[in-house]
Amino acid sequence: MLNLAAIHVTPTVTIPVAVALAVAMIVYLRRLAAADVPRWRRALRQSSMVLGLLMLPLLVEGFSLIDPDVTPRPYALVWLASGFLLFVIVVLTAIDMRLSWSMHQRELAQLRAERDAALRALSGRRNKP
Questions:
Q1: 16, 64, 101, 127 - which has most CB atoms within 10 Å?
Q2: What is the pTM (predicted TM-score) of this model?
Q3: Domain coordinates of the chain in residue numbers?
Q4: Rounded-to-integer distance, Cα 70 and Cα 82, Å
Q5: Measured between alpha carbons, how far is 87 from 98 in angstroms, rounded to an integer?
Q6: What are phi and psi of 104, to 5 degrees?
Q7: Using an 8 Å Cβ cutoff, are 45 and 97 in contact?
Q8: Across the chain, where does the E strand assignment appear?
Q9: Are 33 and 50 in contact (CB under 8 A)?
């Protein structure tokens, strides 16, 4: 029997929040599929979103549906699984950040090279009589 006084947050709060988050994640996934982004970025972000979607029901269950005093083992397992999924999402996000930073550095180097070539061409024209 679910004792609502022993749970962390009432399901009338967590379920609508989880549904709204799930809708936002699905919209983002659909927009990401149509976006012109590098394949590795799309794959990392889609993986993170799918894991986030898998984590939402666990969070609702951990916050609202399982009483830790009545069923401590399932409660611990839900939070352990949620923590693991969050860890994997953070790792995927860190990989995405690192690869994005590397891509940005390469683009900056290319822009600097183009700027330097344009400046050399411009200064070469000025020196000619």
A1: 64
A2: 0.78
A3: 4-127
A4: 20
A5: 17
A6: -65, -45
A7: no
A8: none
A9: no
